[in-house]
Write a structure and sequence with these properties.
alpha+beta; three-stranded antiparallel sheet; six-stranded mixed sheet; 15% strand; 9 strands
Length: 413
């Protein structure tokens, strides 16, 4: 009889198979936002056995059971960071095998909540600020909202802050000014598929033949839209990692320092102007920037291999500065400026890198440098661009006439 009573109690128990556990008896976390109304078991399993349903370590079972296919995010570049790992292995990692783990592991997707809010019971769509938790500083993202990285010296650590870092206030992308968020062009589906964006310029815009530059076939056929319409871009020339360890010399460097790292990071030069131009993987003219011209110095007192300012790589990357504006540079800003294509004349050089002990002729010379997945514009092609035929002269005069008329009209107002 006693055994029968026990069986009946188990059958009536809320923990019996198919019954819903009363989570509220112990937990006071109310589900808010888009998941309001869902039972706890929808994410945590019938018995609550999934403690972290959004974690990449377990394949985010609580999320992908409904959002099928999005676990692919954990195998994509934002999670694996394969490109960064490969670069470090070929450069800094040759002299310090632990460099990546100790200096580069801060930003990567390891959980759905990295983008969708830190509180799992208040999941929301990602905002621009969520994206900027990683896409900040020198990486594309900050520029969209008009932020550029400041110099590394302590004297420049002032002014406005975002994501815990000081920044230079620049003009934002016009799409940001009208309120478009990152997700308008970078959908979760596109990111899960390993694509950079779900939309390109042509998905919303059509070239206007009323614009002089749009009527030129070579522009429309050979240039990315943002080769002309990127107002500015953050550029870092010479990225230095100084390995100091616990050396007394650390106090002599008045730079931003991470007390947990044995390295101090600095840059030779930072700029925030129209970016240089090269060729992307599709062979089209595109903005390019150093990523990175990497130097290392081992200044530890007991360094087994002493060395200072060793050039480890001089690599550039074609990219899309998120600083789109409707205006463009004048014709000579491309057709007459060899420096924009890393074809700087020796007599025009301002920075004497070799005099500074660096194994590079110039930041704006193609010699000894390369574009990852793309290339530089050849000197021969640039010479062709400089030829001023009848069509060029006619467009040039029309461009200036429009500018003069615009100024005259504004003066009358």
């Amino acid at each position: 009889m006693r055994a029968l009573i026990i069986l009946l109690l188990l059958a009536l128990s809320p923990l019996a198979a198919g019954a819903q556990e009363d989570c509220g008896a112990c937990h006071r976390d109310a589900v808010q936002g888009v998941h309001r109304g869902l039972e706890c078991s929808a994410c945590h399993g019938a018995g609550g056995e999934i403690a972290r349903p959004s974690s990449a370590a377990g394949g985010a079972p609580g999320c992908v059971s409904c959002h099928e296919g999005f676990d692919a995010m954990f195998h994509g570049p934002m999670a694996t960071r394969e490109v960064e790992r490969r670069f470090v292995a070929q450069t800094y990692g040759r002299h310090d095998p632990g460099f990546f783990d100790n200096n580069c592991s801060g930003c990567h997707v390891s959980d759905c909540l990295d983008c969708h809010g830190e509180k799992g019971h208040e999941i929301a769509r990602p905002t621009g600020e969520a994206c900027l938790s990683c896409h900040k500083g020198y990486f594309v993202g900050w520029d969209y909202f008009g932020r550029a990285p400041r110099e590394d010296h302590q004297r420049y650590q002032r002014g406005p802050q975002a994501q815990g870092e000081n920044y230079l206030k620049m003009r934002p992308d016009l799409h940001a000014e009208i309120g478009l968020q990152c997700g308008e062009c970078h959908s979760m589906a596109s990111l899960a598929a390993g694509e950079k964006a779900s939309k390109g310029c042509a998905d919303c815009h059509r070239p206007d033949d009323g614009v002089i530059e749009h009527r030129i076939d070579a522009h429309r056929d050979k240039l990315e839209c943002y080769a002309c319409h990127s107002a500015w871009a953050a550029q870092e020339y010479g990225t230095f990692f100084l390995r100091l360890g616990d050396a007394e010399a650390r106090r002599h460097f008045r730079l931003r320092q991470d007390p947990e790292s044995e390295y101090v990071r600095s840059a030779y030069l930072k700029r925030q102007d129209a970016p240089p131009l090269g060729l992307n993987g599709a062979g089209r003219v595109s903005p390019v920037r150093p990523q990175f011209i990497a130097f290392q110095s081992d200044l530890r007192e007991d360094a087994p291999e002493a060395g200072e300012n060793r050039l480890l790589a001089a690599r550039w990357k074609a990219f899309f500065p998120h600083t789109v504006r409707s205006g463009t540079v004048m014709c000579e800003g491309c057709h007459e400026d060899g420096r924009r294509f890393l074809l700087e004349k020796e007599e025009d050089r301002i920075y004497g890198l070799r005099r500074d002990g660096l194994d590079l002729d110039s930041f704006w010379s193609q010699k000894g440098q390369q574009v990852e997945g793309g290339g530089f514009l050849s000197a021969e092609r640039f010479a062709t661009m400089r030829e001023r035929g009848e069509a060029y002269s006619r467009a040039y005069v029309e461009k200036w006439k429009r500018l003069i008329d615009r100024v005259a009209d504004s003066s009358r107002d």
